[in-house]
């Protein structure tokens, strides 16, 4: 049986390895999972992992001499007694998963050097957890074929494009909208966001969507990024962000604006990784569960918030009472899978 080997790594390079796939199985049909555990453990709106053959292999392994990779530099986090997730303790990238239920390993799609010809998105699962369809409304087709949206696992009831849970339908558009809570899976990072009350300069404040009438609230800009840095620090191909001023991010532990620079005032649950030292670009993630939480840099008043951390119980996973989605994909030139990029671009362009 022929085997295909694909290199994989995290952003900082401390975890570099290969994974093997039976060539006859490629491209593997996988899912985008929208469950609460996947979203809040990674900070992503949906995740794609791919089952591999055997275990992760060392970067120097050859077909004649396969050696297991050293994964001692990875942190482990168990979201249930059925699954352990492995992420880089330095740069936060989720790279591997082990299923205790089935006894097999999977690699995160974004950690792979390439995914085109390796994995195709065949269906969405656990869309019901999002309450509003989540990323499935932005990832509608793959290779021109509609991607089914299962409310739970594959084979469960499906939901249509534009679906919303009854609990969201019953809420008034602007009801209880003064705070939006965000949190990681282990809850060691819990914050809330507040609204900007007015737009002072629409051209300069590009991250704000002014209200069209007095009854409509000001929204923040949201986007999907496929840049190399976001992919390799998260382990996933699609990193979703919303932009807002730091002064609108409150740490409930202190009831003060979040502080990233003062060691005494920094939230204890955050671990910092400088992904681009020459530009002082900092990423903040949970050191316990590995969730991507924030992106910031000195001299820039705007902070990027990772949207998989949004409390879906308030307004759904897309938080559309708070977010106006950008109708393009950020850093599209970095995408490693043109099929994925095409599907995502078509989806966001179609958003009304």
Give the gist of this structure.
By secondary structure, the chain is mostly beta strands. The N and C termini lie far apart (about 50 Å). It has 5 helices and 24 strands.
Notes on the structure:
- The protein has 352 residues and is mostly beta strands.
- It folds into 2 domains: 3-146, glutathione-dependent formaldehyde- activating enzyme (gfa) (Alpha-Beta Complex), CATH 3.90.1590.10; 172-349, Metal Binding Protein, Guanine Nucleotide Exchange Factor, Chain A.
- The chain contains 5 helices and 24 strands.
- Strands 15, 16, 17, 20, 21, 22, 23 and 24 form an 8-stranded mixed sheet that branches.
- The protein is globular.
- The model has no long low-confidence stretch (mean pLDDT 95).
List the helices and strands and how they pair.
Blueprint: E1 3-9, E2 16-22, E3 28-33, H1 36-42, E4 49-51, E5 57-58, E6 74-80, E7 83-88, E8 94-99, E9 104-108, E10 119-125, E11 141-142, E12 145-146, H2 166-169, E13 179-183, E14 190-194, E15 208-209, E16 219-225, H3 228-234, E17 239-245, E18 249-251, E19 256-257, E20 270-276, E21 281-286, E22 292-296, E23 302-306, H4 312-315, E24 323-330, H5 338-349
Parallel strand pairs: 3-10, 16-24
Antiparallel strand pairs: 1-2, 2-5, 4-9, 6-7, 7-8, 8-9, 11-12, 13-14, 14-18, 15-16, 16-17, 17-23, 18-19, 20-21, 21-22, 22-23
Family: Belongs to the Gfa family.
Protein name: Mss4-like protein
InterPro entries: CENP-V/GFA, Mss4-like_sf
């Amino acid at each position: 049986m022929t085997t295909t080997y694909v290199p994989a790594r995290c952003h900082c390079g401390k975890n570099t390895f290969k994974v093997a796939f039976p060539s006859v199985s490629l491209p593997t049909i996988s899912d985008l999972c929208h469950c609460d555990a996947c979203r809040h453990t990674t900070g992503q709106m949906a995740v794609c992992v791919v089952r591999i053959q055997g275990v992760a292999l060392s970067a120097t392994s050859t077909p004649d001499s396969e050696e297991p990779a050293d994964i001692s530099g990875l942190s482990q986090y168990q979201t249930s007694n059925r699954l352990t997730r492995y992420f880089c303790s330095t740069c936060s990238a989720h790279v591997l998963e082990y299923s205790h239920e089935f006894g097999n390993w999977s690699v995160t799609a974004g950690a792979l050097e390439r995914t085109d010809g390796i994995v195709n998105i065949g269906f969405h699962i656990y869309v019901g957890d999002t309450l509003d369809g989540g990323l499935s409304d932005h990832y509608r087709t793959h290779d021109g074929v509609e991607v089914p949206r299962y409310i739970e696992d594959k084979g469960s009831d499906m939901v249509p494009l534009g679906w919303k849970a009854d609990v969201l339908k019953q809420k008034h558009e602007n009801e209880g909208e003064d705070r939006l809570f965000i949190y990681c899976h282990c809850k060691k990072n819990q914050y809330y966001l507040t609204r900007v009350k007015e737009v002072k300069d629409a051209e300069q404040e590009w991250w704000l969507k002014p209200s069209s009438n007095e009854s409509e609230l000001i929204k923040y800009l949201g986007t999907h990024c496929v840049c190399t840095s976001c992919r390799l620090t998260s382990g996933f191909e699609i990193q979703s962000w919303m932009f807002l001023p730091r002064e609108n991010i409150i740490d409930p532990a202190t009831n003060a604006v979040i502080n990233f620079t003062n060691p005494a005032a920094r939230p204890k649950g955050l671990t910092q990784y400088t992904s681009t030292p020459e530009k002082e670009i900092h990423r903040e993630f949970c050191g316990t569960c590995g969730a991507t939480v924030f992106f910031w840099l000195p001299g820039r008043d705007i902070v990027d918030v990772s949207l998989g951390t949004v409390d879906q119980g308030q307004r759904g996973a897309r938080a559309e009472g708070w977010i106006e989605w950008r109708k393009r994909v950020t850093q599209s030139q970095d995408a490693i899978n043109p099929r994925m990029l095409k599907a995502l671009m078509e989806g966001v362009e179609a958003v009304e």
